[in-house]
Amino acid sequence: MAATRTIELRTEVPGPRSREILARKQRVVADALTVSLPVVIEEARGATFTDVDGNTFLDFSGGVGCLAVGHSHPRVVAAIEEQARRFTHTDFTVVPYEVYVALAERLCALAPFSGPAKAAFFNAGTEAVENAIKLSRAYTKRPAVIAFEGAFHGRTLLSLSLTSKTHPYKAGLGPFAPEVYRVPFANDYRGPDPRTALEALERALVTQVAAETVAAIVLEPIQGEGGFVVAPRDFMAGVRRICDDNGIVLVVDEVQTGFGRTGRMFAIEHYPVEPDIVVTAKSIAAGLPLSGVLGRAEVMDAASDSAIGGTYVGNPVAQAAALAVLDVIEEEGLLERAVGLGEAIRARMVGWQERFEQIGDVRGLGAMLAIELVHDRSTKDPAPELASAVVQHAAENGLLLLTAGIYSNCIRVLVPLVIGDAELDEALEVWEHALEHALRA
Ligand code: PLP
């Protein structure tokens, strides 16, 4: 292995102090909040974090995709401190503040709409998804929503109803919201192909739900939790056509894909398609709770007075962080960096695929990349236990990786885009050793 420069492990992983805190957690924190890497963080910077035992890790999880600009970027920290000193909360609809308006102006200028656009801010991704549906319903005066197999849109009732993974997210938690219909997502690796998927969508308008009752079709340009399944271009164009033909609002969920990860500010910019609504969260404010719905002005203006909102929505400290995030993305060239990182990581992954039979697929856009592990390339039988073994070995050697996929058999990259070249090499070496360890066993 190359000489370690960033990763530094002073104790076994997890160390004694982490174990002690997690034993306390066990007694007082609800069991459902399971921890994927059992080390307790002390501090973080860029693409690294250090735990309470003094071990330093490289972080390919980026707070599950919230940290395009990295942990505790100095400009983001300064913006947070400055705003927190001035005021932390009013409720924008009671006492409004400029930072809300400034962020709306900036994002509407960046968002992929050719005509007038407007914004509304919330806290979490799930809340933004639900509000996008409310706005679509208000605009169309229709009830139904179509979502896709493999989708993840959140864990509150309506968005959990849109989410498409039974375990661990939905099992035992119904009944779910009504008027949600599900169709297959085109998938270049496992199928269906775009034509078949579009035929299924058209058929659903005959067999499941009348087109004139559908308010919105919701999709992720790259399914995130679903395993980094990239929507094929023809599929995306076909969904747009079906929306146009039937007066349906096209809602693009960019909670995981947005803010530079794919090499564009929004992943939908890779497609010859203009959405009606873009849902954002995660990297928008470097981990502070903030989400945003951006949309065509006439859709955004459709809901009546106070029909959307909430006490905390559009928190000024989070919004100050978001303005700093946009500055960092622009001034540090993070879109170009995502492209470069993507090329470097993909080249390594393709090399791994040549060496290891169990890597069935390498896919993604820009730096949003994943490998999919299978027992057999011809049957594509998913191998979640191999994915877990790789992640476990990498963690024990200082690299935090995350799985994904409806079968939990993918390993994804959500690395902070500010990672340095030497750190990237080091992380990929650890990943490669983990593959050798877990796949050759
Ligand atoms: N939509 C997508 C595409 C996501 O990846 C997620 C979270 O992973 C959500 C929505 C929900 O966001 P949150 O966890 O902030 O509610």
Kindly report the CATH topology of the largest domain: Aspartate Aminotransferase, domain 2
Q: What share of the residues lie within helices?
A: 25-40%
Q: Roughly how many Å apart are the termini?
A: 19 Å
Beta strand count: 17
Q: How much is the radius of gyration in Å?
A: 22 Å
CATH class identity of the largest domain: Alpha Beta
Taken as a percent bin, the fraction of beta residues is: 15-25%
Characterize the quaternary organization of these chains.
Answer: single chain
Which shape, going by the Cα principal axes?
Answer: globular
Sheet with the most strands: spatial strand order: 4-12-11-10-7-5-6
| Continuous helix count | 14
The CATH homologous superfamily of the largest domain is termed: Type I PLP-dependent aspartate aminotransferase-like (Major domain)
The domain count comes to: 2
CATH architecture assignment name of the largest domain: 3-Layer(aba) Sandwich
Strand pairing plus helix content: what structural class?
alpha/beta
Lay out the secondary structure.
Layout: H1 16-28, E1 41-45, E2 48-51, E3 56-59, H2 62-65, H3 74-86, H4 98-110, E4 117-122, H5 125-140, E5 144-148, H6 157-162, H7 166-170, E6 180-183, H8 194-207, E7 214-219, E8 222-223, E9 229-230, H9 233-246, E10 249-253, E11 277-280, E12 291-296, H10 297-300, H11 316-331, H12 334-355, E13 359-365, E14 368-373, H13 384-396, E15 399-400, E16 402-404, E17 410-412, H14 421-439
Parallel strand pairs: 3-15, 5-6, 5-7, 7-10, 10-11
Antiparallel strand pairs: 1-2, 2-3, 4-12, 8-9, 11-12, 13-14, 14-17, 16-17
Helix pairs in contact: 3-11, 4-11, 8-9, 12-14, 13-14
The protein binds pyridoxal-5'-phosphate.
